[in-house]
Amino acid sequence: MSNVLRARRSGSVPADGGAVGPGRPWFGAYVAPFVGLAVLFGGWELYVRLAGVSPLTLPAPSRVIRHLAAEPTFYLRNGWVTLAEALLGFALALTVALLVATAMAHSRSVERATMPVIVLVQSTPVAVLAPIFLLWFGFSPTPKVLVAALFAFVPFVSNALTGLRSVDQDTLEVMRSVDAGTWEVFWHLRVPHALPALFAAGRICVSLALVGAVIGELYGGSTEGLGYQARIAQSRSLVDQLWGSVLSLAVMGILLTLLVMALERRLLKWHTSQSTV
């Protein structure tokens, strides 16, 4: 074991101790997820065909995909609306959460004053706020963006606070001994330690923001977007459009999550969370 550790430190043995061949990391990172999806949709297709399920109850994936291929402009236009609302909500939640968590991390009094408000936001069903935001801001993207931001806010602020406080105390003392300012400690110590926790929240919050945007479209007086189109399809029994909207949202959520994970791997190469045991 000691020989493996010495070889690993010298760079001659991969971080996994040599147990994984050169081709398998590529397979695990890129091929395996698609294999899982193929099994899911293949089982779905097989079940529908063998059980003779009515398309009104559960259409086959092949039927939904054909519908999507026949109406690409429709789904791209509405998907872009929902995506923009989700990303704006995601960015707003991240920005506010960082500001709030930074203040809480530097002051116990601020934390005690802010925590009840965060618990209140977490305990309130966000969906019921969409009609209220509609009354306040009218028929605009703002209600949907705010709902998306509220969905993502609490996980972001909780993880940001944990990350900003989870600093190495010895390093903190060394920086203080050389008269490092509060901004230097924050930027060079607290932020790097908070990044893993923020990316962990980001993988969850990007999907939550998408859910929030859809809920905002369902109850926020929208005239476009995938959530709105799914509601119209449900009210008019347009089964293909309903499942096309659902599948489009699912694909969008997967791609956004993969994008966050790819960014995490690129920016956190130095962190132990990205090593293979």
What does this structure look like?
The chain has 277 residues and is mostly helical. Helix content is 78%, strand content 0%. It has 11 helices and no strands. It has helices at residues 2-10, 24-51, 61-70, 72-106, 108-123, 129-137, 142-165, 169-177, 182-219, 226-235, 239-267. The model is unreliable at 1-23 (pLDDT under 50).
Summary?
The protein is mainly alpha-helical and 277 residues long.
Write the layout of secondary structure elements.
Blueprint: H1 2-10, H2 24-51, H3 61-70, H4 72-106, H5 108-123, H6 129-137, H7 142-165, H8 169-177, H9 182-219, H10 226-235, H11 239-267
Helix pairs in contact: 3-11, 4-5, 4-7, 4-9, 6-7, 7-9, 9-10, 9-11, 10-11
Terminal-residue CA separation: 14 Å
Classify the oligomer. Answer: single chain
Number of strands: 0
Order of helices and strands: HHHHHHHHHHH
Instruction: Kindly provide the radius of gyration, computed on alpha-carbon positions and rounded to a whole number of angstroms.
Output: 23 Å
Please state the overall shape, judged from the principal axes of the Cα atoms. globular
Poorly predicted runs of 5 or more residues: 1-23
In which range does the helix fraction lie? over 70%
Q: Residue-averaged pLDDT, rounded?
A: 80
The biggest sheet amounts to: none
Beta-strand fraction estimate: under 5%
Number of helices: 11
Structural classification = mainly alpha
